[in-house]
Design brief:
The structure is a single chain. This protein is an all-alpha fold and 503 residues long. It folds into 2 domains: 164 residues, no CATH class; 191 residues, no CATH class. The protein contains 22 helices and 6 strands. The protein has a two-stranded antiparallel ribbon. Strands 2-3 form a two-stranded antiparallel ribbon. The protein has a two-stranded antiparallel sheet with strand order 5-6. A hairpin with a 7-residue loop joins strand 5 and strand 6.
């Protein structure tokens, strides 16, 4: 009787004929905008932040008629969140890099590429600049190896008479190199006057070897070779530890640069042309030094070689550690790395930005049986670590807004206010429904239908709008219209349950 009376009342008021399209759509809120932008659906309570509604919705996650649907709703939210994060990462870079080792190697490769590009540009410009000097100087030697020979003597002094294999080799090869870069002038003749002993009255001092001067072409070739050795792409000394070879090469490269500067100190046309060429060369060298000493250079560590056994070269920092340090850099360090990558390796910058998102996604995934695909809480925790420096990492304002839409929506979707973690609510509802079955089948059906329909409507746009009207309408007529539209929208599901409850 109760069911028939209800049906009659519904027919008299026309509620069962009310269509969802007849209900006015409420205005779009910021939460609704973020939800649509991110593609992550929200329930009414999550969207509005209404604690009473959130309390009710979280109860639906516990009641047995609606628990399954609520879990499906949560799975939809999680799937949409993971999909959106992957979309944002793919928009940044088509390189699907989520492996720390891969991005660490990409960053190291970008560093080497940047240094190599500057060095190549420096040599190209130098060929033009010093070509002007050669045109003026011709075959005249103008670069005196004074600083180079002084540095070689220091190296010989440091390694001479040292009972160690590499030291002996270094001293021997340095002496040979010194001989090539010095020349001994012809000595004075002894005095023609002889003493009673038959010896000359005056015996001159033996001539002192001095630094030899080289043409611009020869000096440039020497400097280029030593510059490569300083970057570990060549060598000066043979059969010694590569790490020591690089250190010595840097010393000699610096010395020959000082010799170029010394040759430009005069006020001659040759010196002036040389001074301009030296200035341009020094600027490019400073750019290389800047990258070496920058946050990117410090991020990568140094290359070392196992000279005694395998001969392999490794970095002092593993690529996985490079990736980790990239994510934990200070904002000023991140800005410096971004500036270098944007200038010299823009593709790697995009890869690194995409990695930051994919790393957060991978870190939030769950492999527990029955658990959602990912945890919104874990994802937000990972993003929160880099959020203050997203701009410094190269993310644009639009990209940051997209990320914020995702994390804001995840925050709302993950709100569990009023949740009963003990499960006593669900148990009480189940017992109450069982008892009602003996007293009134329709009461028991209503107990099941209400949470079932509400849970079905939570993550559909029509359902959310109708539930908003049902729970927020001030007038009974408006509320009844919304409930009637819900009945029309989910009539088949309710009818199935009614049929089962009447059997």
């Amino acid at each position: 009787m109760q069911g028939k009376a209800c049906s009659a009342a519904c027919c008299r008021t026309g509620l069962s004929l009310t269509r969802p399209s007849q209900i006015r759509t409420p205005p779009v809120t910021e939460a609704a905008r973020a939800s649509r932008a991110s593609g992550i659906p929200l329930t009414i309570g999550q969207e509005t932040g209404n604690k009473s509604l959130q309390f009710f919705e979280n109860r639906l996650r516990e009641l047995f008629p609606s628990k399954g649907t609520a879990m499906e709703d949560e799975a939809r939210q999680v799937a949409a969140g993971a999909k959106r994060v992957d979309e944002l990462a793919s928009q940044l870079s088509q390189q699907n890099i989520a492996d720390p080792e891969a991005i660490g190697n990409r960053l190291r490769g970008a560093y080497n590429e940047a240094v190599g590009k500057i060095a190549a540009a420096r040599d190209t410009n130098a060929a033009s600049d010093y070509g002007k000097v050669r045109a003026l100087a011709g075959t005249k030697p103008v670069i005196k190896y004074q600083n180079v020979t002084d540095e070689l003597r220091k190296i010989i002094d440091e390694n001479g008479n040292v009972p160690a294999g590499d030291a002996s080799k270094i001293a021997k090869q340095a002496r040979s190199l010194l001989e090539k870069l010095t020349e001994t002038p012809a000595g004075e003749k002894p005095s023609p006057i002889l003493l009673p002993s038959g010896k000359p009255a005056r015996i001159p001092e033996p001539p002192t070897p001095s630094a030899r001067a080289a043409t611009v072409s020869d000096a440039m070739k020497t400097r280029t070779a030593w510059g490569k050795a300083a970057r570990r792409t060549g060598n000066i000394f043979e059969d010694i530890d590569p790490n020591a070879n690089q250190v010595l090469a840097k010393r000699l490269f610096s010395a020959i640069n000082r010799d170029f500067d010394a040759a430009s100190s005069d006020n001659t046309p040759i010196a002036k042309a040389l001074r301009e060429a030296n200035t341009n060369y020094a600027k490019a060298s400073k750019s290389i030094e800047f990258i070496e000493q920058s946050a990117l250079g410090k991020l990568l560590g140094k290359d070392v070689t196992d000279a005694a056994f395998t001969g392999e070269t490794f970095s002092t920092k593993a690529p996985e550690l490079i990736a980790k340090r990239y994510l934990t850099m200070q904002p000023s360090q991140a800005a410096q790395v971004t500036s270098i990558l944007r200038e010299h390796a823009p593709g790697v910058l995009q890869d690194a930005k995409a990695y930051a998102l994919r790393n957060a996604l991978e870190s939030s995934r769950s492999d527990l049986p029955g658990a959602p695909e990912m945890s919104f809480t874990k994802f937000r925790r990972e993003i929160d670590r880099i959020e203050p420096k997203l701009s410094d990492m190269g993310f644009t304002s639009a990209e940051i807004r997209d990320i914020k839409d995702v994390t804001d929506t995840m925050t709302r979707a993950g709100d569990r206010v009023g949740a009963n973690w003990s499960g006593t609510t669900a148990a009480a509802h189940m017992l109450g429904t069982g008892a009602a079955m003996f007293a009134s089948p329709m009461s028991a059906a209503a107990s099941i239908i209400t949470p079932y329909v509400a849970s079905k409507a939570l993550l559909t746009e029509q359902g959310r709008d109708l539930l908003k009207k049902a729970y927020g309408a001030g007038k009974p007529a408006a509320r009844n219209a919304a409930l009637g539209a819900l009945r029309s929208l989910y009539g088949s599901s309710m009818s199935d349950l009614n049929d089962r409850s009447n059997q």
